Amino acid sequence: MNETVVTLQGWLGADVTLREAGEVPVASFRVACTPRRYQRRSDSWVDGDSQWYTVTAWRALADNCARSLRRGDPVVVHGRLSAQTWTNSAGIEVTSFEVDAAFVGHDLNRGVAQFTRTARPAPEDAAGPGTDAAPGPETAPGAAEPGAERDGGEGAGEGAGKGAGNPARRSGRAA
Question: Which terminal Cβ of the chain has fewer Cβ within 10 Å, N or C?
Fold first, then answer.
């Protein structure tokens, strides 16, 4: 199947709207992408015309978008692009662009974010009926965050942990 996959970098035009299609949550929001171009003649940056995209997210991504995104937030969206052509009430043919999102996140070039992992419900049949399953590493109290061991943990000195052979780490530069 030939599908056009795009990654957008832009700003949320309004708060996310959340609805249900059947029993499935669906989030919808608009993203404005405004290209900037450097003009040598005037030695300045000039904004181009804003391009607006309607983004749709489904299921858990829809819930997380509704809980995380607010009007004016810088976002990055990755998904399938589709164009819809229709005639408006004035008789003018209009084309709108929609993105069925696979991934959505804040644009960390524009600010910082705090990530909170969402809890997944444990499958009932995984541990068998009537048994109490021990919490996994994601939900266990005091469990280390995934990837915390990458840098050798707290207090690890030079040469400890993975990545110690990385020249960027030895020189003090950020990797």
Answer: N
Cα(168)–Cα(175) distance, rounded to whole angstroms? 6
Question: Which of the 8 DSSP states describes residue 109?
Answer: T
List the one residue out of 70, 73, 66 whose CA is nearest residue 112.
Answer: 73
Residue 121 falls inside a structural domain: no
Distance in angstroms (rounded) separating the CA atoms of residues 168 and 120: 37
pLDDT, one tens digit for every residue, the chain (175 residues): 689 999 999 999 999 999 999 999 999 999 999 999 999 999 999 999 999 999 999 999 999 999 999 999 999 999 999 999 999 999 999 999 999 999 999 999 999 999 999 887 778 765 555 555 444 444 444 444 444 443 444 444 444 444 444 444 444 444 4
Tell me the CATH number at 51. 2.40.50.140
| Tally of domains within the chain | 1
Instruction: Write out the residue range of the structural domain in which residue 59 sits.
Output: 4-106
Q: Is the dihedral of CA 28, 59, 118, 101 positive or negative?
A: negative
CB 137 within 8 A of CB 143: yes
Could you tell me if 52 and 61 are in contact, meaning their C-beta atoms sit under 8 angstroms apart?
no
Tokens of 152: 């050798």
